[in-house]
Amino acid sequence: MNFRLLTLFLLIFSHSFLPAVDSALEKQREAENFVAHYFPNAPKEKISIQILSGGYSDASNFLIVIEGKRFVLRMYPKDELEKRIQRELYSHQQAAQVGIAPPIYIVGDDGRSVFMEYIEGKTISIDQAKLPENCKKIAEALRKVHAIAKNPYPRSSFKERIEELYNELCSHLKNKETADAAMQIIRDADIELQKINTPKATIHGDLNPRNIFITQEGVKLIDWSETNWEDPFYDLSCFALQHDYSNVDETHLLENYLQHSPTAEEKKHYQLIKKANLATFSIIGQLFATKLQSEKNEKIDPIAPVKEWFYYVNCFANNNTEITAQFFHDWAKISLQRAQKE
User: What are the residues whose beta carbons fall under 8 Å from the beta carbon of 198, sequence distance 6 or more?
Assistant: First the structure.
């Protein structure tokens, strides 16, 4: 798995990335060893370690309770690139300094274990995200994200990485018509965006509901693994799409973020990014529908009616359904339909 920019959450939601039992036990032992090393004087009877479910990163997260105080231990796979970890840590630490990410207390000697503050409460729901007061808070948090200095650990662009996925998808397809249509939308949008030449900024890159908390102190964002130097409207569009924002909701988000009514040029800019993101959903969905169909021999009904957009984003937000090849196929289908209408 080379990248997972927001819309690539579909990849890590695939069953093929679920850890095996042996792997889970090994990670549990690693978490126990970390706590024993850094907290040697803590009474063992006052320590508990529990894996946290519901995340969509390839890192493992543990709830660590030491003498009644809660923390999170985030542990990266041994094959994770050091540069990628450093990129995530940089943006996370910068965000923590301005109050929009949990503080990091310890980075392990191996550089692959990160011990941080535990955020009390639940992640944001789609309904909560639509409340005017929370829309405003999200917009304020994103302005802080986009003001973070450029990450010293660069990565390839959104367009370059989607081209890689498109090429992989095409290697599995006999009929490339749908994939070609989605990729053409992304290429056309990229040409128009280059004309606009909007200044780039640090983005979070994965603003799905599982990565957002609304706390008494304000918005807290977790999982900075998809941070990048990109057009800031990618964050706005991805957040809106994954929280089922209406056109009115999107206008309010833009107004709160820009701190003025969006101009015609800003609206056009936003729509171009939105089209590109929807087309990316389509490519990712097609790729994993194809892989699940091949690897698990799952059947796909190509003429099955698709559900409303809310169904797909809500399933992801709540992790309350089995993700099948049909699910990916249908999400890809509705994503392309929406992209073509924008």
Answer: 231, 232, 233, 269
Q: What percent of the chain has pLDDT over 90?
A: 78
Q: How far is CA 328 from CA 176, 281, 308, in A?
A: 16, 9, 14
Could you write out the DSSP letters of every residue in 272-288? Answer: HHHHHHHHHHHHHHHHH
Q: Which fold has domain 6-117?
A: Phosphorylase Kinase; domain 1 (3.30.200)
**Mean pLDDT computed over 284-306:** 91
Residue burial 57-87, b: 16+ Cβ < 10 Å; e: rest: bbbbbbebebeeeebbbbbbeeebeeeebeb
pLDDT at residue 138 tops 50: yes
- pLDDT tens digits, residue range 90-129? 999 999 999 999 999 999 998 999 999 999 988 999 999 9
Q: Where in the chain is the domain with CATH 3.30.200.20?
A: 6-117
For 126-341, give the CATH class: alpha beta
Model pLDDT for residues 246-287, shown as the tens digit of each residue? 999 999 999 999 999 999 999 999 999 999 999 999 999 999
Tell me the C-alpha to C-alpha distance, in Å, between residue 123 and each of 60, 81, 173, 208, 313: 18, 28, 37, 10, 15
CA 222/CA 20 separation, integer angstroms: 25
pTM (predicted TM-score): 0.90
340 burial (CB, 10 Å; 0-12 / 13-18 / 19+) is middle
How big is the CA angle at 237 (ends 234 and 241), to the nearest 5 degrees?
135
Start and end residues for every CATH 3.90.1200.10 domain found in the chain? 126-341
DSSP-based three-state secondary structure for 65: strand
Could you tell me if residue 197 is left (phi over 0), alpha (psi between -120 and 50 degrees) or otherwise beta? Answer: left
- Grade residue 56 by pLDDT with cuts at 50, 70 and 90: low
Identity at 32, one-letter amino acid code: E
Side-chain-facing half-sphere of 337: CA atoms under 13 Å: 11
